[in-house]
Amino acid sequence: MPRIEREFLIRAPIEVCFDLARSIDIHMDSTAQTRERAVGGRTSGLIELGESVTWEAVHFGIRQRLTARITEMERPFRFVDEMVSGAFHSFYHVHEFYEVEEGTRMVDIFEYRSPYGWLGVLADRLFLTAYMDRFLTQRNLHIKRVAEAKE
To answer: Which domain holds residue 104?
Structure first.
């Protein structure tokens, strides 16, 4: 099971970073390259514990839908979203926030399983893990820019 883990130092309060990370609107802004948009469940504002969102986006030239639900939340330190349905076999996405002297340390941990058995494992090694790493990094850098612009 591939695991992508990234840390970002954000010069902004923890509450700001936490709310930006769970903002549907910020997510759509940060994923404009894939034309990602919320089409079901919570479609704007801040997603809460127990809520789900269905995303529609174009990845690898294919329009896809994915539904994720917030399964854990401890404001403003941590929340988890898990795939309910979509292109992956499964995913578990942890967002953690730590108050530090400079502002907030945001930790993003994404674990997933690809479908299609050994073909999925091959896709992970050849391109999918790198693609997901770039996708998540771009999203988190957008959160950092917006949070730091607020300060």
So the answer is: 3-150
